[in-house]
Amino acid sequence: MRKVKQGVYSIFGRIYIPEEIMGKSDLLLHISDTPSQIFPALRMLIRKLKPKVIIHTGDLSDNIKLEFNENLMKDFVLQAKKIIRIMEFSSAEEVYIAMGNHDKLREVEKLKERSILAEMGKIIRIGEYDIHFSHYYEDVMTEPKDYNLYGHNPLMKNHKVRNRWFLNGVSSINVIDLSTGKVYELRYPWSTDDYRYRRRKSGL
Predict the structure, then answer these.
(1) How many alpha carbons lie under 13 Å from residue 193 in its C-beta half-sphere?
(2) 193-202 long-range contacts, Cβ below 8 Å, gap at least 24?
């Protein structure tokens, strides 16, 4: 039933939140490679979920391929500001952002107020868990921890090796219940990959 609900929500551009995590106060939200077209859905998700910690593993506005065309800098700054405000204006106590290949550190530094930036990989301790995050899977593999968060490569799916989780924020929105250690994989709106890989136009 949950998969059906996730599918229906996704088709209508929304994100389904399992009832068992609604109202919990000790949640970590992991997102990555977020095209600006899904910012409204992410805003609604964050308002409802009220995560304690948000980690974005890079490419803040993934429909703008800044690495290939720096003439898009003005568009990038405009959209990056939006997603940073969504995260920082939430009730989250901590917000972390890893720089992706389509982000620009010097510009994000100007936009952020309370977010903690990581140009490369970063290891943090939250409660009883060590969390290693980066835009790249290869970075977290160098020193794997309890939870290893990354993005960028859609081929590197979520998986678990012994007691260590490897979670890709491209393939799913990942929610970690810090009180139990359980991982919930939420589905992005159905058009997310089309916007990421520019398979469709965002308007007429």
Answers:
(1) 12
(2) 193/154, 195/35, 195/36, 195/37, 195/38, 195/62, 195/63, 196/33, 196/35, 196/62, 196/63, 196/170, 198/63, 198/65, 202/37, 202/63
Task: Give the CA count within 13 Å in the CB-facing half-sphere of 8.
Answer: 6
- The domains located in the chain, with CATH, are 2-120+170-196 (3.60.21)
Phi, psi of 134 (to 5 degrees): -165, 165
Rounded CA separation 80/74 (Å): 10
Instruction: Show the tokens assigned to 154.
Output: 């859609």
* Residue 182, amino acid: K
Angle CA 178–44–89, to nearest 5: 75
Entry pTM: 0.95
DSSP string, 60-116: TTTTS-TTT-GGGHHHHHHHHHHHHHHHHTSS-SEEEEE--TT--HHHHHHH-SSPE
User: For residues 199 and 186, what is the distance between their CA atoms, to the nearest angstrom?
Assistant: 22
| pLDDT tens-place string over residues 124-137 | 999 999 999 999 99
107, two tokens: 């510009």
pLDDT in tens, 164-204: 999 999 999 999 999 999 999 999 999 999 999 977 544 33
